[in-house]
Write a structure and sequence with these properties.
Distance between the termini: 88 Å
CATH topology of the largest domain: Rossmann fold
CATH architecture of the largest domain: 3-Layer(aba) Sandwich
Number of domains: 4
Helix content: 25-40%
Largest sheet: 6 strands, mixed
CATH class of the largest domain: Alpha Beta
Structural class: alpha+beta
Radius of gyration: 47 Å
CATH superfamily of the largest domain: von Willebrand factor, type A domain
Length: about 650
């Protein structure tokens, strides 16, 4: 018994003084803070994930709704689009969120505002009294354009005067050219409304048909001093008196000849006028007439005025003329007659004979091998292009009988030298007319004035000799193009209102100059490379056409008259011209895109051909069948050109 008590006492003593059991107590005491720490981390992580997801969903809906708006008007449809995008990114019940509320509105000026809220239930933190967390986000989106260059390349060919459909409108308010004017202005309004105050937005316009009117935008140093034209050269006969001057008196003849009874019959060939009577008083009168001739008088011979001087004595010659029924009428009167004439310009200048229609090089003394006699009128060697560039006119020897006449330059041009080929990928180095960044170094690379009234169309490249006029090549020179610049709405309105429809459809010519005007390199690099604020520039070509490509070898285009110049085909073949111009369009579009220029194409009232679709940047080709759709397409492009931004 005593031993048992001793053992029990010893156990209790050891247990009382054993510190090992303190760890359990400490662990139990630390459990609650640890749960709060871990639970707080988990629930905080869930909160931030849910809030971020809700913010992203709000942003997505605002962007989608704003992109769907083509104007500043916000509709129920736009709100629904925003809500649908929100729901796709933050569906009801995600993360266990309850009481989800979301909505989109607009301030009326094109800004879409969004709000969303909900309740996120807690997990571990519920044990500490935190059963839920409120979620709330807001967002807004607007279209805001930074530095942007926009070049309109507009088809103004003859078909633009028609309606987009065949329902029966002729050049009225429903015509395509009228719709084009309206669409351009709607485009302008959409872009301007979204432009950042610090940004530079510039517009340019290239109206095109079979020509482009860009000559007045080209610096003088890059315009040629001479050029070859399909024109004509006057050929002359030798002058009657090439060694004399106007006003000189020349001796025509000095000889004895019979005189007529009346001075009014000088130079007549009728024998009766030279018969003098010999009988009675009539004979006496006749003899007196013969012996009393005036000393000088004037006579018109072949339209020329001559001075005849009768130098005596006169002789009354009997039996001079053959019998004519009366022997009394056989006498004649003869005397020495000295004939002179005062020379006019006609006498000392070679006279026009015929035209030689050929390819004429200006500044050449004997163009087309025509060598005219001495003292001929001034010719092609005197043609001076300096007057073209200073006053828009130049004198050329193509007037009546080869006279100098004034030819007006309206601003359309002929392109530099090219290369005859079917393959424009890559563009041959010698094809200067396809180089959108061309800066000419010589006349072969410079642009030339297109002079309609100096050019005639021949049936082939062979010379034609004629005394009359040949036909002209088909000609249209559109409204002068506008380089890139900031422009007031009223100025742009006046410009597009002045556009008229005429000519055939040369897509390559229009796109070529649209690319040249907007390229950051090349002819206008100094104007295009940078913006005043130093920020990057977005560049866009908006190319609109209402028809498929239409060419004619008889047109006077930027490459002359193809049937004779043959600068595209080499042989004047119309099918080859069509195919090569289609390929040239593709080459120019590729070159533009390589300069980071976005090319937008709109086919209006016509099919969107593969050639047009391929020209456009990916996803940037559109088609419109009527005026309203064209306007909508232009507004859609303007919206997409604008940079859609989240502003909060």
């Amino acid at each position: 018994m005593g031993r048992e008590m001793q053992v029990r006492k010893s156990f209790l003593h050891r247990l009382l003084h054993d510190r090992t059991a303190n760890t359990l107590a400490l662990a139990a005491a630390a459990l609650l803070p640890l749960m709060a720490m871990v639970g707080g981390g988990i629930d905080a992580s869930r909160y931030y994930m849910a809030a971020a997801r809700m913010q992203a969903a709000c942003d997505a809906g605002a962007l989608a709704a704003r992109r769907a708006m083509t104007t500043t008007s916000f509709t129920t449809e736009h709100r629904t689009i925003g809500l649908n995008f929100f729901d796709q990114n933050f569906n009801d019940g995600i993360f266990g969120v309850t009481n989800r509320v979301r909505n989109y509105t607009s301030d009326g000026d094109g800004v879409v505002n969004g709000t969303a809220s909900g309740t996120l239930p807690s997990t571990i933190m519920g044990a500490f009294g935190y059963t839920s967390f409120p979620l709330s986000v807001s967002c807004s989106a607007e279209v805001n354009i930074s530095n942007t260059d926009i070049m309109f390349v507009l088809d103004v060919t003859g078909s633009m005067a028609d309606c987009p459909s065949t329902s029966g409108c002729n050049s009225g308010p429903g015509s395509k050219i009228v719709a084009l004017r309206s669409a351009v202005m709607s485009f302008y309004d959409t872009v301007q409304a979204a432009t950042s105050p610090a940004a530079q937005v510039r517009y340019g316009v290239v109206p095109y048909s079979q020509q482009v009117n860009v000559g007045f935008s080209i610096p003088r140093a890059h315009l040629a001093n001479n050029h070859r034209y399909q024109s004509r050269v006057a050929r002359y006969n030798q002058a009657a008196f090439p060694n004399n001057d106007v006003g000189d008196t020349v001796l025509l003849s000095d000889a004895t000849e019979f005189l007529p009874r009346s001075t009014s019959n000088f130079n007549t060939t009728n024998i009766d006028n030279y018969r003098f009577r010999t009988d009675g008083s009539a004979g006496t009168t006749a003899r007196n007439v013969c012996t009393s001739y005036p000393n000088t008088y004037t006579v018109t011979v072949n339209g020329q005025t001559q001075r005849w001087e009768v130098i005596g004595p006169t002789s009354f010659v009997l039996n001079q003329w053959p019998w004519n029924g009366s022997n009394n009428n056989l006498a004649g009167c003869s005397a020495r007659v000295r004939k002179t004439r005062t020379l006019t310009a006609t006498d000392v200048t070679p006279q026009f004979r015929e035209w030689v229609y050929c390819e004429v090089q200006t500044g050449t003394a004997s163009p087309c091998g025509v060598t005219n006699p001495a003292r001929s009128p001034a010719g092609w060697e005197t043609v001076n292009f300096s007057t073209v560039y200073s006053g828009n006119t130049v004198s050329m020897p193509i007037g009546s009988n080869g006279s100098m006449t004034s030819v007006t330059w309206s601003g359309c041009i002929e392109e530099p030298e090219t290369v005859l080929t079917d393959n424009y990928s890559p563009i041959p180095s010698g094809a200067h007319d396809l180089n959108i960044n061309l800066v000419p170094a010589n006349d072969a690379q410079r642009w030339k004035p297109a002079l309609q009234n100096a050019v005639w169309r021949r049936p082939s490249d062979a010379e034609v000799v004629s005394t009359g006029n040949l036909s002209r090549g088909g000609w249209t020179c559109p409204r002068a193009a506008r380089k890139l610049s900031t422009i007031a709405r009223s100025d742009l309105q006046s410009y597009v209102d002045s556009l008229s429809a005429s000519g055939n459809t040369y897509h390559d010519i229009g796109m070529l100059w649209g690319a040249r005007f907007i390229s950051p390199r090349g002819l206008f690099a100094a104007e295009n490379a940078t913006a005043p604020n130093g920020d990057p520039i977005a560049r866009h070509i908006v190319f609109m056409t209402d028809g498929e490509q239409v060419n004619s070898i008889n047109n006077y285009s930027t490459h002359g008259v193809e049937v004779t110049d043959r600068r595209i085909t080499g042989d004047g073949n119309s099918t080859r011209e069509f195919n090569r111009r289609a390929s040239r369009l593709q080459a120019i579009c590729r070159a533009a895109q390589q300069e980071n220029i976005t090319v937008w194409v709109v086919a209006f009232g016509t099919a969107l051909t593969s050639n047009l679709q391929t020209c456009a940047s990916p996803g940037r080709a559109f088609q419109a069948n009527d005026n309203a759709t064209l306007n909508a397409r232009f507004q859609e492009i303007a919206q997409k050109i604008a940079a859609l931004r989240l502003t909060s």
